[in-house]
Amino acid sequence: VAISPALFFDARDALDIARRTRLIDGLNAADTTVFRQLRKTAAELSRERSRLLGLEHAEDGAAGRLESEARTLEAALARAQQRQQELTVAHAAALAAATTTTTTTSPPTTTPATTPPTTAPPTTTAPSTPVPPPPPTGYVPTPGTNPHHDDPFLVCVRNHESSGNYQAYNPDGPYYGAYQFLQATWDATANHMGRVELIGVRPTQASPYDQDDVAWALYQWRGSAPWGGICDPPP
Fold it and tell me: Does some domain include residue 158?
């Protein structure tokens, strides 16, 4: 039986078309798989981005709360320190008044009333300023030289604030010590750094080692802001 050439070519074309159709279907299936994977990856990245943004906002909120709590603590410590100073002054005044009363009162005597005393009884004068309270009983000054004593920032602050005098006192604050601490700032920093034995200690009563220690901790905690940025390095 003779086969027509036209039928031969039609059969070959049909096979070629079938092969191409299968190839295209395979490519389409692969593209669909890749597209689905890309879409899944994009969704995961979007969720991760949302999670990271949420963490960032939470950290910002936590930092704000910590700063607010620090300011509240400093204010409370300042009020407590002011109250302590008022009580110290009142106690010193009461003690001075009691001493004056006991020394100016004549003791009982058996001498007849017509005999005048030969000497005047001694009198005392109240001190013009109250004596600073002693350091808290739990405080033991740390001896030696602090490892950060020669840090350029601390050296600059000491020279600017007190010319390096660890007993410096400025009644305007009042400010104490080589770094001119407010008592509230000193107490808040001591609490922050975990040295609770320094809370309530006047900075001028603390050793140079401990003053350096608190100044360095405050610098690490709050930067140069407590000293007005006076010793920031040039830009």
Answer: yes
